[in-house]
Amino acid sequence: MQQNWQRWGTGVIGASVLIGLVAHILGMQLMVIGNLLFMLGLALVVVGAVLVLARGHLFTGWRHRRKKGQDPLPGEKVDVHDVATVKNSPIRVSPGARFSFLTGFGLIIVGIVLTLF
């Protein structure tokens, strides 16, 4: 059974192929359509990588200067002795990142196939 992000990913790939076919019928060359889909796929892969890195606790343990009386920042609430445990936690890939990767790689493959024709 497909999960929600898988349905959306295959739907976006299918819709982009249909839009590409309509654009080809209207006179656009297949190579141009393939290049556009390839670039859109690359952009979605980058978005997926950013979404994965956003949950990576990259800035855990950094010291932030604050003014007197100011509440601690969220990054300061981790104890110094627990920083390594938090930073070495497993990589978590959110459903949004999975959607971006699936759709991005799918559009890259479709773009390559269209460029070859």
UniProtKB/TrEMBL annotation:
Cited Pfam families: DUF3899
Is Membrane a UniProt keyword of this protein? yes
Domain of life assignment: Bacteria
Residues that span the membrane, as ranges: 12-30, 36-58, 97-116
Which keywords fit this entry according to its UniProt record? Membrane, Transmembrane, Transmembrane helix
What residue stretches are annotated with the DUF3899 domain? Answer: 34-116
Q: What is this protein called?
A: DUF3899 domain-containing protein
Taxonomic lineage per UniProt? Answer: Bacteria, Bacillati, Bacillota, Bacilli, Lactobacillales
